[in-house]
Design goal:
Elements: H1 6-22, E1 25-31, H2 41-50, E2 55-61, H3 68-78, E3 84-86, H4 120-133, E4 140-145, H5 152-160, E5 178-181, E6 186-190, H6 204-208, H7 221-230, H8 233-240, H9 248-259, H10 270-282, E7 288-289, H11 300-313, H12 315-326, E8 338-339, H13 350-360, H14 367-385, H15 387-393, H16 401-425, H17 428-453
Parallel strand pairs: 1-2, 1-4, 2-3, 4-6, 7-8
Antiparallel strand pairs: 5-6
Length: about 450
């Protein structure tokens, strides 16, 4: 990732650390379209390292966007490691009274036809089961964590049944930890998305996870190449209504021409066309899903941990209740989605964190040298920006207004320097006392002259 965003990303990372430290249960939200690609194993290690008593629960969100068979396979896969619940956030537009659908749905009903929330009752039961198992009298604190745009804020609004936190499809909507009291037993903490990720393959994986704003990407062509390698060409032809293409550049040229994305002189703007494709991918206009990979043999230690967590949350009861609304999901025959391979789990870039810690300390030993470096950088930027003007004004007979402005600034600077030199030679105490003495002497002379010139009163003229 570019260095220009390091500061904000470190700030988000600090908020993540605050949420982990303040939470009893960490609820990691995953995107059902690519659960492995949106699951941060490094963040889970941070939780266990901070406190071994903290519990992690996985939440498979957006189950209405993938086939039923994919949801069932992913739940089986993830529950071999951690307690996992299925969820669908509320998509209603009103500010309050966001509806829930009961977990007992009819088999004929389709989940995708409703905008209500699914899985909220089961999730609340899961959290309260943990509270009862530990006999906690106070409210348990649940931290909602995950990558950007997996649905963390939408999850909180769905549980609260009102829009208490802002939501949006653009990364960075949530910028700080937000506390929401769900009821007297459960308190939720909303957290910014985990954005300090290692960007492999020129940031393609980060771009396709919608972890970064498209407008801030340095390279928008490489992610589009990856999309074209994943999607059948027929799908893209029907979506964008363009003729057949032979390469990525040909695809972007035709799309830019069709959408009217042109630069000055009629040059086709392929980068603007690439941004259109990335926005469509992030907003779900190119529907896709993944299936879980093959897993290696589980260790006995993991089996002990899984069974212990299951007893604390009483997961058997929860899993039976959610099977009713999972059966109402659409099957693969009803979907026109494309199957793509799973992305690798994202990794937190620890080198960026170490750089941030180093830079945060008092490093500046010689401020004069640092100021010189800043001036040199600013001067180099000005020089590079004025290259075109230099070529223009070097022609003989062309007046360069910059020289006139520089001469004016120089004269003004000399004027101020002269005034400053005069002020520097002025000694207030000495000059002020000398001035008073001169004034007194001058006043006494004037008084004597006045007395001599005035006639004597009381003497008659002869």
């Amino acid at each position: 990732m570019p260095n220009t965003n390091d500061h904000s990303e470190r700030a988000f990372y600090k908020e993540l650390v605050k949420v982990i430290e303040a939470s009893d249960v960490i609820l990691e939200v995953l995107d059902a379209r690519d659960p492995v690609g949106t699951r941060c194993i490094d963040m889970e290690k941070m939780v266990r390292k901070a406190d071994a008593t903290k519990r992690i629960v996985l939440l498979l969100n957006k189950i209405d966007l993938v086939p039923k068979e994919s949801v069932e396979k992913w739940l089986t896969y993830l529950r071999e490691e951690l307690p996992t619940v299925a969820f669908k956030c509320n998509t209603q537009e009103q500010r309050t009274k966001l509806g829930w659908k009961s977990s007992k749905l009819e088999k004929t009903s389709k989940v995708s036809q409703t905008s209500d929330c699914l899985g909220a009752e089961n999730l609340l039961k899961l959290l309260k089961n943990y509270s009862r198992s530990h006999e906690l009298k106070l409210a348990i604190t649940v931290g909602i964590v995950g990558l950007p745009n997996v649905g963390k804020s939408s999850l909180i609004n769905s549980l609260k049944r009102s829009r208490v936190v802002n939501v949006g499809s653009t990364p960075g909507v949530t910028r700080s930890m937000q506390e929401v009291q769900l009821d007297r037993k459960v308190k939720l903490l909303d957290c910014p998305g985990v954005v300090m990720l290692k960007s492999s393959n020129s940031g393609v994986s980060v771009a396709l996870r919608n972890c970064k704003r498209v407008e801030k990407m340095e390279d928008v062509i490489s992610p589009v190449k990856e999309i074209l390698s994943l999607c059948p060409h027929e799908k893209l032809l029907s979506l964008y209504k363009i003729p057949r293409f032979t390469s990525v550049d040909d695809f972007l040229q035709k799309l830019a021409t069709l959408r009217g994305k042109l630069k000055k002189g009629g040059i086709v703007d392929v980068e603007a066309a690439a941004k259109i494709v990335l926005h469509d991918w992030n907003e779900g206009k190119v529907p896709y899903y993944t299936l879980p990979p093959k897993r290696a043999s589980m260790e006995d230690a993991n089996a002990v941990i899984i069974s212990e967590d299951g007893r604390e949350f009483n997961v058997d009861e929860i899993y039976k209740a959610e099977s009713s609304f999972i059966s109402g999901l659409k099957s693969m025959e009803d979907f026109s989605h494309i199957e793509i391979p799973c992305n690798d789990p994202p990794e937190i870039d620890e080198e960026m964190l170490e750089d941030g810690k180093t830079q945060s300390g008092p490093v500046q030993e010689n401020p004069d040298e640092s100021m010189c470096d800043v001036n040199d950088r600013e001067g180099s930027k000005t020089t590079s920006g004025n290259t075109q003007h230099d070529k223009l004004y070097t022609v003989e007979g062309i007046l360069d207004p910059r020289k006139k402005r520089l001469e004016k600034k120089r004269r003004k600077g000399n004027k101020f320097s002269v005034l400053n030199d005069m002020d520097a030679d002025y000694d207030f105490k000495v000059d002020y006392q000398m001035k008073d003495a001169d004034v007194d002497e001058h006043d006494s002379k004037d008084a004597d002259e006045t007395k001599e010139s005035e006639p004597m009163t009381g003497v008659c003229d002869a």
